[in-house]
Amino acid sequence: MHQKIMGVLLRHARQSAGRSQAELASSLHVPTSRYAQFEHGQREITLPELEVVAELCDVPLGFFFDHTASVEDDGSSAKVPVIPRLQRKLVGALLRQARQCAGKSQKEVAEAIHVAPRQLSEYESGEREVPADDLRALAAYLSIDPGQLRAGD
After folding, report:
1. Where does residue 36 rank: exposed (0-12), middle (13-18), buried (19+ CB within 10 A)?
2. Where does 82-149 sit in CATH, by number?
3. Less CB within 10 Å around the terminal CB: N or C of the chain?
4. Could you report the average pLDDT of every consecutive run of 10 residues in the chain (153 residues)?
5. Rounded Cα–Cα distance for residues 56 and 149 (Å)
6. What pLDDT shows up at residue 74?
7. What distance in Å separates the CA atoms of residue 92 and residue 83, rounded to the nearest whole number?
8. Count of C-beta atoms within a 10 Å radius of residue 53
9. 2-64 maps to which CATH number?
């Protein structure tokens, strides 16, 4: 489970920084396929590799460990319990993946389910918990089983 969570955090940091898997793999001197395994939770990343990723993605190293930092963390945010925060991040990553697979923009999806685009962005980043009604609406709009958007399923 730890590798899966780390993979979600790696993917989130990379995407937020606008970097590609190939770019990070090259910086780590590993094949792109190995970096993809890190993000899929199939292979454990080493601390020196993680330090490079943190630097390249402009996130504090603690982002990957204390689970209270965020990509936009300015150091002033209140501490958030680890498990709920990780669940929100996992749900957000699953939501982003489903939206991207459906070929939809955040704006399109937000309008379809009657939320602000910023709110959908917060769902995808794990900053905000997705209410059950919005989760059902998202699953219906993206034509997926709602269970696919639940962490730990």
Report:
1. middle
2. 1.10.260.40
3. N
4. 82 92 93 94 87 89 63 40 67 87 94 94 87 87 80 48
5. 29
6. 39
7. 14
8. 24
9. 1.10.260.40
